[in-house]
Specification:
The protein is mainly beta. Helix content is 0%, strand content 51%. The termini are far apart.
């Protein structure tokens, strides 16, 4: 797996973590394309996208290891990015959310409804809905089919983040020192988690397993149904970002965390146990955001057996049928008991049919 980190100074730094008896970290690349702080980062199985305070989104092809260019649709800091299927979504200080087509990178839709900066967005696993929170203290539910908001909730506090769980059965709203877990179509939170200090980041590992960290320096793992809590201790500074990879063993995960002092740690995690299995330090740069890339380029196996020879078959093309539009002559004007037909210019493929109209006295 590959850990890609966006920094306050601007560079994007990548490490490959090779899993064996001991985890070995190898530097992969350093990309210095942004002129400002990297505020958001996201990747899928091929592309990497980074958003910055320079109002641009930079794109990289992780298969070919080449930069694809920049998207300049926003007129403010790009605060959040999310891939889903063949689309990329971005939210900005300008209050808009843009939806791009991966590959062509065309902006297909611009979602406008927030009156202040969009701080975070999250796409439902179905790809039909998306949630967004803003500094206008609203939570909006968007239809990604129509590009319009279908529901708006006024929040009591300023939201920092929103995230769906892995099956879309619930979502969490992060606000300063508090995380509220909601179920769709429910106005009241089903769970409430607080911290003595500000919570910076949170992540769902499964439908019921939630992890979060922040200025407390510890990482908290909560099983929502049983309400059991684990505490992961190891960082010496505030935790800036969390991401995870599913293990081959059922209900086991590799949790990756990065703190503001550059410490990167990998944890082996399950619902009732955890172990710190590796880590490294990022020097001379301050991490802001992180994502984990696990996609591998898929190669198509060449078929050695020849394909059967197909006989050429002539296909008779159907005769092109010319549709003729019928124009009716206007004979509504009647003078002196006689019907008057107005002349209409005859056009190609048009047939004029005069109507008979009897005048009764």
């Amino acid at each position: 797996m590959e850990i890609v980190i966006g920094t306050y100074e601007g560079p994007i730094i990548s490490y490959a973590a090779k899993l064996s008896e001991e985890i070995n970290f190898e530097p992969q690349f350093v990309e210095k394309s942004h002129s400002g702080c990297v505020k958001s980062i996201a990747c899928n199985n091929k592309y990497l996208a980074t958003g910055s305070s320079d109002e641009s989104i930079r794109l990289l092809d992780l298969h070919k290891r080449v930069e694809l260019g920049a998207l300049m649709q926003h007129s403010g800091t790009v605060n959040c990015l999310a891939f889903h299927g063949s689309h990329l979504l971005s939210g900005s200080d300008d209050g808009t959310i843009c939806v791009y087509q991966c590959g062509t990178w065309e902006c297909m839709k611009t979602l406008k409804s927030h009156t202040a900066a969009v701080t975070q967005l999250s796409v439902h696993p179905s790809g039909v809905l998306a949630l967004s929170v803003s500094r206008d203290k609203t939570l909006k539910t968007w239809s990604l089919i129509t590009g319009k908001p279908v529901h708006t909730v006024n929040l009591q506090t300023l939201p920092d983040s929103v995230i769906w769980n892995t099956d879309g059965s619930s979502y969490a709203i992060l606000s300063d020192k508090e995380i509220l877990v909601f179920q769709p179509h429910s106005g009241k939170p089903v769970r409430n988690y607080t911290s003595p200090k500000r919570i910076v980041t949170c992540k769902f590992l499964s439908p019921t397993l939630l992890v979060y960290g922040g200025e407390v320096k510890d990482i908290t793992v909560v099983e929502i149904e049983s309400n059991s809590v684990q505490t992961l201790t190891g960082h010496q500074a505030r935790v800036k970002s969390l991401d995870f990879v599913r293990s081959d063993v059922k209900d086991h995960y590799l949790l990756i965390s990065v703190s503001s002092d550059g410490e990167i740690k990998i944890w082996a995690l399950s619902q009732d146990s955890h172990d710190l299995i590796g880590g490294t330090t990022l020097h001379n740069n301050r991490p802001v955001c992180m994502c984990v890339y696990t996609g591998e380029k898929k190669y198509v196996k060449q078929i050695t057996t020849p394909a059967p020879t197909l006989k050429h078959q002539e296909v008779k093309k159907p005769k092109k049928r010319i549709r003729r539009k019928v124009l009716f002559a206007n004979i509504h004007a009647i003078q002196g008991g006689k019907s008057i037909t107005r002349k209409l210019k005859h056009k190609k493929r048009y047939k004029i049919i005069p109507l008979a109209l009897e005048h009764t006295t």
